[in-house]
Amino acid sequence: MTKYENLIKQKAQNKEPADINALAKKYKMDVKDVKKLKDRVSQLEEDLHSKDYWEKPDYKFLVNENLDLRRKITELEQEVLETKLDNKKLAQQISTMLERMRDADF
């Protein structure tokens, strides 16, 4: 484990020394680095427990999902247009056949 992982593990187990100087000495780090690390860990914990993290899905996922849906909609619209065109052609064929039958006195 890296020294950062050890810090996080200790924090989770509540065995972390309270003094920043003791932490810096224990892990042979500069006091400023320990403060930055502690601040970062606390910010990550806040973000993890934030409602926004769990309520708002990943933006990139939504963009990709939106693009996929747009493609599917375009395909469905194309199918609808083709079906309408086929229906018009069939209706024209039926009306032509009916006219021929009337002309032939069926």
Structural overview:
The chain is an all-alpha fold. The protein folds into 2 domains: 3-55; 57-106. The chain is 81% helix and 0% strand. It contains 5 helices and no strands. The longest helix is centred in the C-terminal third of the chain and has 45 residues, at 59-103.
Q: Nutshell version of this structure?
A:
This protein is 81% helix and 0% strand. The protein is mostly helical. Helix 2 (20-26) packs across helix 3 (31-49).
Structural class: mainly alpha
Average pLDDT rating:
80
Count of DSSP-assigned helices: 5
Low-pLDDT runs of 5+ residues are: none
Q: What is the total domain count? A: 2
Taken as a percent bin, the fraction of beta residues is under 5%
* SSE order: HHHHH
Strands, count: 0
> How far is the N terminus from the C terminus?
93 Å
Main sheet record: none
Shape: rod-shaped
Gyration radius, to the nearest Å?
A: 35 Å
Give a topology summary.
Layout: H1 3-12, H2 20-26, H3 31-49, H4 51-55, H5 59-103
Helix pairs in contact: 2-3
Descriptors:
106 residues; single chain; 5 helices; rod-shaped; mainly alpha; 2 domains; 81% helix; 0% strand
